[in-house]
Amino acid sequence: ETSESIRVWGHATFGEVRNLSALVARARGELDELEQAVRANDRPEIGREAADVVILLHRIADILGHDLNEQVDAKMVINRARKWKTTGDGTGSHV
User: Fold this and answer.
1) Smallest Cα–Cα separation from 59: which of 1, 21, 4?
2) In tens digits, what is the pLDDT along the chain, a chain of 95 residues?
């Protein structure tokens, strides 16, 4: 799958996106479902819910003329060049 193929599927299935905020709101809902699956330690559901979030991000990216995979690659180049401060819980922020 690519951002384009996912956008085409989304358009055919759900119709034209008139407001990107609708996709962002839907992604928030999917993130909530992902969090519930994580709290329940339901590994198969975690995978499915994570995929739902990524699918929505692919749709948003392609509507704006981007391929999400290419955007992730470019952002990782930036992230790898940054200095990071860890929080001790597997996350952190750049300094």
Assistant:
1) 4
2) 999 999 999 999 999 999 999 999 999 999 999 999 999 999 999 999 999 999 999 999 999 999 999 999 999 999 999 999 999 999 999 99
